[in-house]
Amino acid sequence: MKYKDLVDKIFEKGKEKFEDMETYIENTKEIEIQVFKGEIDRYNISETEGLSLKGINDGKIGYSYTEKVDESSMDMLVEEAYENGKYIDALEKEIIFSGSDEYKELEGFKQSLKETPLEDKIEFVKSLEKEAFDLDSRIVAVSYCAYYEIENSKYLFNTKGLNLENNMSLAYSYIMVVAKEGEETKTGLSYRIAKDFTDFDYKKMAKEAVEEALSYLGAKSIKSNEYPVILKNTVFADIISSFKSIFYAENVQKGLSLLKDKVGEQIAITDFTLVDDPFAEDGFMVSTFDDEGTATKYKKIIDKGILNTCLYNWKSALKDGVESTGNGYRDSYKSPISTSTSNLYIEKGDKSLEEILKTMKSGLLITDVQGLHSGLDPVSGDYSLSAHGYEIEKGEIKRPVNQITIAGNIFETLMDIEEIGNDLKVSLNGVGSPSVKIKKLAVSGE
Question: What is the pLDDT of residue 112?
Answer without folding.
Answer: 86
